[in-house]
């Protein structure tokens, strides 16, 4: 969504609105999923503040994240939802934020990828992949910069 030109999403508004029937087709049971990186920095900040308050990442409630994501979306004139009727008419049902992954989450990704490859987990390989992964903020090294996206390609370097 953050890569789309503002206003482009308006073409979907009739399919999301209250009429449900567009050009003779009923879209009542259709599911539309919009994926965006907008609000990522704000989500990371909420997660970091929770960690500093000694709260587990899993304790972060959606109600804490929705306002910061909405504000990030509204403040970005380059976003596909900028001044969109979809937002103004509250046509989105659910926002599903993706929280940043911590070291133990990435460890699970490495173990899962090794299993997927039919390999026995070796601690030195797991540790090497973790050590090659970038974590932030610089001081705490708490969250993975890329989540698990680069795990599969990194494993080959350490086998």
UniProtKB/TrEMBL annotation:
Q: Which residues form the Torsin-1A C-terminal domain?
A: 104-158
The reply to whether Coiled coil figures as a keyword in the UniProt entry is no
- Which compartments is it annotated to reside in? Endoplasmic reticulum lumen
Q: Which InterPro entries match?
A: TOR1A_C, Torsin
Keyword list, A-Z:
ATP-binding, Glycoprotein, Nucleotide-binding, Signal
Q: Which Pfam families match?
A: TOR1A_C (PF21376)
GO MF annotation: an example: ATP hydrolysis activity
Give the record's GO CC terms: endoplasmic reticulum lumen; nuclear envelope
Q: Where is it chiefly localized? A: endoplasmic reticulum
Q: Which domain of life does the UniProt lineage start with?
A: Eukaryota
State whether keyword ATP-binding applies. yes
Xref: PANTHER family: TORSIN, TORSIN-2A
Protein name listed in UniProt? Prosalusin isoform X3
Where does this protein come from, organism-wise? Ursus maritimus
